Every structure is written in structure tokens, then in C-alpha cells.
Amino acid sequence: MTLTTLKTTPFDDQKLGTSGLRKKVSVFRQPDYLENFIQSLFNALGGVEGADLVIGGDGRFYNRRATQIILKMAAANGVASATVGRNGLLSTPAASNIIRKYKKTGGIILSASHNPAGENGDFGIKYNSSNGGPAPEKITDAIFEETKKITDYKILEIPDVDIEHLNSYKLMDMDIHIIDPVEDYQLMMEEIFDFDAIRKLIASGFTVRFDAMNAITGPYAKAILERTLGAAEGSVVNAVPLLDFGGLHPDPNPVHAKALFDLMHSDSAPDFGAASDGDGDRNIVLGRNTYAAPSDSLAVLTANAHLAPGYAKGIKGVARSMPTSAAVDRVAKSLNIPCFETPTGWKFFGNLLDAGEVTLCGEESAGTGSDHVREKDGLWAVLLWLNIIAASGKNVPELMTDHWAKFGRNFYSRHDYENLDLETANKLIADLRGKIPSLAGKTIDGLKVVAADDFCYTDPVDGSVSSHQGVRIYFKGESRIIFRLSGTGTEGATLRVYLERFEGNKEKLSMNTQDALAPLIAAADKIANISSRTGRVEPSVIS
Ligand code: VG1
Ligand code: CO
To answer: Looking at the CA of 349, which ligand is closest?
Structure first.
């Protein structure tokens, strides 16, 4: 066994985005690239001697290779123990749970989440701290600083180690524990939810379809929905995590989860449909002919969470990312609990959850979660929906209709323009920022602007400030448009345009969403000149 220190030079592109470092696999496969980043991470943590780390990922191409490299570097850097999901697999929420439950120093999650996988696809790495959540900006900035000055890294030069068998063994002085990726996660779900009630619901003939999109949630959903809760075999489809996700793009939205949407709008629709993303932290939920869009889903879950044993005492508060619709704000108001608005990305919920200020959190991008872990959690949301259905005796369409009748409806949609020329996109946003002072008071296509700003967030717990989090334009009548650039893409730039309008008129609640938002869609193009600047006549993805 040879412990080596190898010379290296910095890469200039290792800045972390919304959730860690995401690049093409071909970038990660460059000599020393991954090693640079991992050593920079270890350095940014002040060294990892004696640390206990969790390692796992979503099963995509390069997951296993990266796991091997990280284990050899961890041992060489004096890590005390590494807990690894078998075959290097762990969903993001499961990893968060292991860190918290066994009081680990932190975890390295190997995933590019919803980005396509395979040799020509994307790979990603992020670090989660001892609270189980994505490292805050203080740490991600420190990692980036290290990547700029790194000179060498430590690694063991040895053959690959066994990560295929549930086992514990030593690598130099480091303990390696290969664990079942599902077991602890399932135990946690059984504590939060009324499994007997859900089992009864399913036994009564309630049918379920869960699309794991060939990514990490397959093994979790099979174990919990089929083997434990009694859903018929085959209820979970695309259940085996594949290196390239079978060519699917596991971003659960109407475009990439089209098969599920088609099924749920057909004559053979089951009672309940759901899908998750690459690393298992996102979810979408559908009923027959009904989509519980993520912002609405957060609102319905907040209003009904008390029906699940884990939240029977009620919830302390909620948080949503800024572009997420204000549907949940209305529920919070009626429950008389605080509602926080944070920048995009789960790392901003961490402090609020740790401080006990909030119980539930969510993002418009199909992420919902609670204080049970410090990540969004796809299967958790699905189980909470099932628990609510079992306890209330109402199905998804009834829950949605009742909700809108009580609270009104926040029509909401996100339009993504993907793979734009980077310069064009940056200029579009820069010009928008410049326009902010002149917007207030203006009337655009009959819509009166009441306020405009570039979202700047001050963390209520530690006072840290994050600026430039999205251009917000508010219109009279509780409508708004938000513009921001994605921080998770790997090709060009993605412009996200978020559109929202509140409707309280009972006759108009069942309008088509895009129709309901049409005036705002037109105004967005007028304000940002999207089509003339980018040459795009329509978005790449509408969700
Ligand atoms: C996107 C979503 C954001 C989410 C992030 C990570 O970020 O909009 O809500 O937190 O992905 O999700 P962006 O910067 O591309 O808009 V995941 O499932 O990759 O951990
Ligand atoms: Co994800």
C-alpha cells in the first residue's frame, strides 16, 4: 500500500453552483480533476483527520469510479471512517439521514440530480455538513478558494476496494462500512407516517404508479411502496438505477416525465401517480387528470400535514424559495405560523430548520421536505400525500379542488430557455437589473408594476447576506414575474422565467394555467426582450 502525495495545478472552473460542482463527465474524467476538488474540499474543512464521512450517489456513470478515488484519498488524508452505500449508492435524503442519525462529520454526495447521465452526460459532487444539509455558502466559497491555490493531493495507490458487499473493514487506519442504502431511510419513514393506514388504503384497491426514471429512487420505492405497503408488483416502474438513466432525463416535470403525465390523463390512470428525480430529492404528484404542481403541493401538504403522525402536533413554520408561488403563504397565514422566503437552493433552508423556525420547506422546482432531514425528499413527499389521502378519505383531485375553493388559486408556471449563449443571457439579466429603478409605476400591457428589485436575502438566523438572487417584478393584483439564471446547468446558460397570478374568483379556478398567465407571459417578453435577444420563440421547457 503506497501513500503518495502527487503534484497538481489548479483548474479554473471549480466554482460551486446551486448544489455543488456540476460538470460534464468528460470534465470530471480529466487527470487530477476530481482529486483536485476533493483535496480542496478536505483543505477547506481544515483537514479531515479523524473525520467520519458518508459517501454515496445516484448511481450514474462515474459514481463508482469517484467513490473509489474518494475512499483512497480519504484514507490518505487520515479520515477515521467512511460509511458508504452499497455499490456507492445513496439517495440524497438518505445520505442526509445517515449523517444526522450516526452523527457523522459530513457527507460527499455524488450526483448531478436531474441532469442527464451517462458517459456524455453530467456528473456532480456536493458536500453536506454535520447537520445533514448542503454546505452553506461560507464553506462552498472556501472550497472554491482552495481550488485556486491547491498544489498537491494525497492518495493511496492501491487496487479498488470492495464496495459491493455489506461489510466493515479497514483501509490503512480508516474504517469502511458498506451499508444497505435503504434500511435506515425506510425506518425513518415508518416513524413519520402511518404505514398501516396507507397499507389499508392500498389494500382497498387504491392504485399507485411511481416512476423512478431509472435513477436512485427505484430501490427505495420498491422496498417501501411495493414490499412494505402492498402496492402491486410493477407499480414502481423504471426501478433499476442505470448508469445513463436509460436515456431518460429524470427531472420530474410535464416534459421529462411525459409518460407519467400521459398515463394519469388516460382511461387507464391509476388513482395516484408520482415520480422522483436523479438523486431522489424531488417529487411530483398527480391524481387522475390532475397535477398537483409543486407550489400547490407545498401548500396542500402544509395545510394537511397534521394528518400524519410525525406532524400531529402541527407545524412551527414554513419556508419557500423566493420563486415558489405564494400559495403556501396563504396557508401559513390561516394557520398563524411564520412563512419565510429564501433564495433558490436547499442550502438556504438549513439554518431555519436547525433553529427550529420551520417544519416544512419547498421549492417550485418539485422539491418538498421537512425537518426530518436537511435535504428535500422525494419519497417522503409521496408518502405524506398518501398518508393524507388515507387519513382524509379524499383523493388528489378532491384535495386540490377543496384547497383552491378555500384559499383561492395561485396560477403558476416556470418557463425555461435552455442552452442559451452565456454572454447573451448574462447581458439580458444585467440589462434587466439596470431597468429596475425605472419599472415601478410603469404600466406594461395594462399591467401596473407596483415594485421591482433584485432579491437580496439576509439569513434571519446568522445574518449572512446573499445578493443578486433574481429580478422580481410585482404587479397590481398579486401577480409577479421573476427572472434568474440557473446555477445547475453545464451547457451555456438557462434563463428561468417564473410567472404567478392569484385568482380568487371561484368561477375561474379551473382555467388552463398558461391561459391564466398569458398577459404576464407577454409582459415578460416585453420587459426582457427574450425573443429578440435569444431568437427563441418559445421556452425549451414549460413546467
Ligand atoms: C435548480 C432548481 C432549484 C434546486 C436546484 C437543485 O436550481 O431551480 O430549486 O434547488 O436545481 O435541485 P437552478 O439554479 O438550476 O435553478 V437538485 O434536485 O439538483 O438537488
Ligand atoms: Co435532485
So the answer is: 1
